[in-house]
Amino acid sequence: MKRFHFRLDRVRQWRSEQAAMEQSRLAGMIAERQAFIAGIAALQTERAGIDGALVRRTEVEARELAAVASARDWIKFETVRLTAKIAETEARIVAQRERVTVAQRNFKLLERLKGRALEHWKQEESLELENLASEVFLAKWRPG
Fold it and tell me: SS3 for 3?
């Protein structure tokens, strides 16, 4: 009896690797988005710290107010930039999720084909064993 061999096993393996690679890219994009979100949170914390420090002071010089205003402007600019990056990353994530879905679907299709081929092979093997057993039985049974 010959061993089971799926003709498309290399393709199935390649599709599996492709699906894993697409999933990995998606994870990277999600991590990138999380980094942008964390950056915005850090900016908000920094702004709260600047505002808190300013409120605690009893006297504030004009150049300090100018520095605080400049820092606030920079924080606002960075927040807008990071928000745009988040939106851009979200769009890439949506597209990547579609690629992951397609890659997984292609892999699962080959998995089902392999399952069907294995089932067919098992049936053929069973039939072959049954025929062999019948032949052995008949060979022993014949008077001779």
Answer: coil
The token duo for 12 is 């199935």
Apex 19 CA angle, 18 and 25, nearest 5: 90
Task: Give me the sign of the Cα torsion angle 21, 27, 30, 36.
Answer: negative
Written as one string, the DSSP assignment of 61-119 is: -HHHHHHHHHHHHHHHHHHHHHHHHHHHHHHHHHHHHHHHHHHHHHHHHHHHHHHHHHH
**C-alpha angle 57/62/66, rounded to 5°?**
95
Each residue's pLDDT tens digit, 55-80: 888 788 888 889 899 999 999 999 99
Q: What gap in Å lies between CA 120 and CA 113, rounded to an integer? A: 10
Name the percent of the chain lying above pLDDT 90: 76
Region 87-96: mean pLDDT is 98
Q: How far apart are CA 20 and CA 47, in angstroms?
A: 41
Check if the beta carbon of residue 110 is closer than 8 Å to that of residue 12: yes
